[in-house]
Amino acid sequence: MNPQGYDFIVVGAGSAGCVVANQLSANPDHRVLLLEAGGWDRNFWLRVPIGYYRSVFDRRFSRTFHTEPSEGIAGRSIPWPRGRVIGGSSSINGLIFIRGEPDGFDDWAEQGAPGWDYASLLPYFKRIENYRGEASQFRGAYGELSVSDLRMRHPWCAAWIEAAKQYGLPANPDFNAGTTFGAGTYQLSIGKRWRASSAKAFLYPIRHRPNLTIKTGSLATRVLIGQQRAAGVEWTEGGITQRAFAEGEVILCGGALQSPQLLQLSGIGPADLLRSHGIKVVADLPGVGENLQDHLQVRTVLRFKRKQSLNNDVRNPLRLAQMGLQWLISGSGPLTIGAGHAGGSACTENASDGRPDVQFLVMPLSIDRPGAPLHRFPGFTGVLWQCHPHSRGRLRIRSTDPAADPLIEPNYLASEIDRKVMVAGVKMLREIHRQPAFADLWEEEMSPGQGVQTDEQILRFIRETGGTIYHPSGTCRMGHGAGAVVDENLKVHGVSRLRVIDASVMPVITSANTNAASIMIGEKGSGHILEDVLHH
Q1: Average pLDDT of the chain?
Q2: How many whole angstroms separate alpha carbon 513 and alpha carbon 469?
Q3: Is 322 exposed, middle or buried (0-12, 13-18, 19+ CB in 10 A)?
Q4: Catalytic residue set
């Protein structure tokens, strides 16, 4: 076998890329090369679920991009960490496994991506997951990815759910069974004890296949294209430029930031931008890097009366030892938590067609941001974000250097409806906090605080403290016509044998966390490739 000749080259071993590599290499006749800029995910903090708080900004596993300062968020730049490790962002994320509102996927189909409606996608969602909870027509029990119900019950989170019900939200025992509307606990991508990343689920079991070559520390620099056809990939490894050629296809799975960046560096994107950097235009696709979406989150923090917060527990050696034992013996307790315990979604007065427009996430701890120390008081955090932001941003290369960060403009809160929904969400969250089941537990709202009451004050608080909840998507939009980058089979318009399979193809961001949908895109996208192989 020619070591530099392959049938398929997959760029990026992230949430979708691990699935694609798994599916394509299942046929022993397919020679598959998987390139990943980061290293293997062998660190303890990448494997233990609570390690999320340590790993998300750790430069060994994560590459932190910075957005342009923007008026919408009080002239601030927001750090956007993305996984740069085998497993990608699924190795450093908050582990919440939620698909999002079914209506959101129906929107994809209506916006030019037939076959991507919820009914068509449900079999793919079911196929990837091994859910240990109650069986239903919505859930899969035989997939590779372990999905678990929350394994830590905390009285404050139970009280919050009770308060949400008193406010008027229905109880929702399973956010992945038809709707996210209502209040309940989150499911997490966890196996017996460890994080179930896309790498652990889809890549580790098959990494020794003789027809699969995995290269780490390999930063893709451009797609090699000849006669409007992807021929291979160039990358740097240990400072040396290397190339490999694909007889079949090149598949980009770099995520919503690096797939459009790589396309632009390869001559696929807005022609004027490419020419301004001296890049030869292969395909004038103005949509590459446009349609950037993210969920803007804002955090409220309460100080509780009793010292039952994880803020207190982590400073108590006895409690820490108990946590370790609980995790070792039963795979439960505080070490198995992700970015949120309880929450759900709701409709503000701005919602249309009864579709939830805000999502909540609460946890019995408080910090300024992941990686920062827990507060010294007994803290409780309530997070909210807008499910369907109207604002659209963009991403553009700044230079021809593949290692340089692109220009990222999220354009947060540019749309008036986004501002209204976020303000309404903060007010709703505060109302839940005042319900009888919850009100007597806490003594002070630390953030935003009593001085923030009017809509103008709340909006200023959101602008000055809001940040990403790490869900960038949409920059290589699926569809047809102006602004579309790939078709419904995820093939790049105007260049053959080239596909994009990751969160960048979402026409509209999912209403909830994006990881489950990204893995599903990997599953369905691989199917399209294999279908084409059969027909040829």
Answers
A1: 95
A2: 8
A3: middle
A4: 471
